[in-house]
């Protein structure tokens, strides 16, 4: 599994209030969500009326595809006439099966697919805590 993320900073010089800013941010986010299969949200500086920080996340099975998706989404958002992109930072990380440890609760999906009556491999049969 490959997870791509982007942190995008926009200037909104036309915003004279938080209401103006939220209107612009809502349009930018809704356009991106409608056009792309990605998670998009305002993630910082919600109370600063001339600046918006928007996070984008995509999931793929291929790093090149995740990078391409991020690049396309960022280009579309940068083309917005409502806000000016002033900064961008992206990251693409590969997460594999070895990155999850069910003992730490990080891989909850493994517990969800255990068949009825199947023993949990992490349960200690000799434990007196039962």
Give a brief description.
The chain is an alpha+beta fold and 130 residues long. It has helices spanning 18-35, 63-78, 108-112; strands at residues 2-11, 39-44, 51-60, 84-94. It has a 4-stranded antiparallel sheet.
Describe this structure in words.
- By secondary structure, the chain is α+β, with helices and mostly antiparallel strands.
- It has one domain: Alpha-Beta Plaits (2-Layer Sandwich).
- The chain is 30% helix and 28% strand.
- The protein is built from three helices and four strands; from the N terminus they run βαββαβα.
- The protein has helices spanning 18-35, 63-78, 108-112; strands spanning 2-11, 39-44, 51-60, 84-94.
- A four-stranded antiparallel β-sheet has the order 2-3-1-4.
- A hairpin with a 6-residue loop joins β2 (39-44) and β3 (51-60).
- The longest helix is centred in the N-terminal third of the chain and has 18 residues, at 18-35.
- The relative contact order is 0.23.
- The model is unreliable at 107-112 (pLDDT under 50).
Work out the helix count.
3
Order of helices and strands: EHEEHEH
- CATH architecture term: 2-Layer Sandwich
Q: Helicity, in percent?
A: 25-40%
Order of strands across the biggest sheet?
2-3-1-4
> What is the general shape?
elongated
Q: What is the CATH first-level class name? A: Alpha Beta
Would you identify the regions where 5 or more consecutive residues have pLDDT less than 50?
A: 107-112
Strand content: 25-35%
Protein traits:
single chain; 130 residues; alpha+beta; Alpha-Beta Plaits; 4 strands
Set out the fold topology:
Layout lengths: L1 E10 L6 H18 L3 E6 L6 E10 L2 H16 L5 E11 L13 H5 L18
